[in-house]
Amino acid sequence: MKHIDEYRGREQARTLAAAIARHVTRPWTIMEVCGGQTHAIVRFGIDSMLPPAITLLHGPGCPVCVTSLDLIDKAIAIASRADVIFCSFGDMLRVPGSCQDLLSVKAAGGDVRILYSPMDALQVARDNPHKQVVMFAVGFETTAPATAMAIHQARTQGLTNFYVLVAHVLVPPAIATILGAPGNRVQAFLAAGHVCAVMGYSEYEPLARQFKVPIVVTGFEPVDILQGILRCVIQLEAGRAVVENAYARAVRRDGNTGAQTLMRDVFHVVPRQWRGVGSIASSGLGLTPAYARMDAERHFGLSAISAAEPSACISGLILQGQKKPHECPAFGKACTPEHPWGATMVSAEGACAAYYRYRRTEPVGAGAEGPA
Questions:
Q1: What confidence score (pLDDT) does residue 371 get?
Q2: Do 175 and 218 fall within a single domain?
Q3: Sign of torsion, CA 241 193 365 342?
Q4: How many CB atoms within 10 Å of residue 94?
Q5: Which of 140, 143, 254 is nearest to 199 (CA)?
Q6: From 186, 300, 328, 369, which residue has the greatest number of CB atoms within 10 Å?
Q7: How far apart are CA 144 and CA 129, in angstroms?
């Protein structure tokens, strides 16, 4: 397709891979923090195009995957109520909670509906004034403005039956947590272009300075990703550590200031529990006092619900870049998309799902499709 194929060209990708090989003189480890980039790397075999000295790690770049187990259990508790219509994006329905998932609640008669936009939930609330309508708001900074707009519109329209279970998370604190962890292996980051399209990239600059790591804002096609890796390698070899924008067709340093203003009105920064990672300070969004009435967790009195991660699932290690999916004994056997043990196998952006789809029958590192 026009405007996509130009970033999937085989010859352009090979040229970039050759440039990376020319610049590399020592081993380097680079992490992408976006599930869409992870899928592109695995689907197109980008890692197989790189010299052996370059190791790519997959970070906590899937918001579905990092939504904590206790929040899933809270969603299930709300959705199971007869007086509730529970609205969620479809990829959350099969994420396992402690005992079941939202799809099981729906199968048992719960009124669980799939959203295509947060604004859809407003229409459900308008059409069902005698029901409590709850929207499950999941995502990084990319989707938070749309959630904020729905919440703002709900207050403007006087919808008193509309509530939100907020699970939004923020990328920079997760990067800081990974870099500050004992035994950290990451020496450079590919930052997600769609997040930076909203937030800009100035908030990554203190991280690059503090931890002395290059951070390159990168798109989602093979040429984008290889360009990002090349820029990381050039910086690493030169001993530099700054933020670069390799996705200038979509990202500006200041981002979308209108979206940011709306987000600041509706949300404030809170601690957040990340599934498989743990609690990260200042890494989530919660409703400001002006919108606190719509807080579903508070409205339904669910603060006491907590849950422990199952020890058999290594998705937490995968999300932190310490393991890869094929290193899990259950991968593709006991744990499959039809019977997932963890969210990384369920979500369309999860690393385990990517490896299951593209790498089950190939040696790890073999290209699945290759750029066009």
A1: 65
A2: yes
A3: positive
A4: 18
A5: 254
A6: 328
A7: 25
Domain span holding position 151: 68-168+256-299
> What's the token pair of residue 46?
């980008």
Residue 195 corresponds to which tokens in the numbers above?
């997040």
Instruction: Report pLDDT digits (tens) over 67-122.
Output: 989 999 999 999 999 999 999 999 899 888 888 999 999 999 999 999 999 999 99
For residue 372, what are the CA distances in angstroms to 2, 48, 128?
A: 13, 15, 48
Domain count, the chain: 2
Domain assignment present for residue 39? The answer is yes
Are 189 and 231 in contact by the 8 Å Cβ rule? The answer is no
- The reply to whether 295 falls in a domain is yes
Q: What are phi and psi of 9, to 5 degrees?
A: -65, 130
pLDDT at 342: 80
Whole-model pTM: value is 0.89
What are the backbone angles phi and psi of residue 208, rounded to the nearest 5°? -60, -40
CATH of residue 149:
3.40.50.11740
Give residue 59's identity as a one-letter amino acid code.
Answer: G
